[in-house]
Please model this.
Amino acid sequence: MNPDFLPAIGASLRNLCEFAARHDVDDQTLTDLAAEIDRARAAVAGARGAVRANRCMQHLGGPVDPTADNGCLLCGTSQRRPARPIPEDFVPGDVLWHIEEHGQDAATERFGAQAVTRALVLGGRHPSTKQLAAPPAEPYDEGDLT
Model:
């Protein structure tokens, strides 16, 4: 049973009880009563379904994050602390030098992850890509064309 639908079931039952107090019944009242019964049936059918993994009302059936308040990965991501901003005096060469001297973890602690990533990309030396050394270029001589 999915308990998320219990408030909707309770509201539908209260609305249906209000119809019993009405003494004048016309076509519009019957139409409203039928619509309320349909809402109650839909809520009961939803309650019979599986329990949702997260308790998020915005992202029903979304991915689960056990550390988030409502169990929703999408909402939890927006609630997390934002990354440290890149310093105004950011110089990619200084960051790259710090990486070479002290390692990437130390550079990340000092400059922040965004600054280290930007320096690696700008320097073309991201650790996930191998930088192949090209053989030195031979001078082109027009006399070799025969």
Observations:
- The first helix runs from residue 6 to 20.
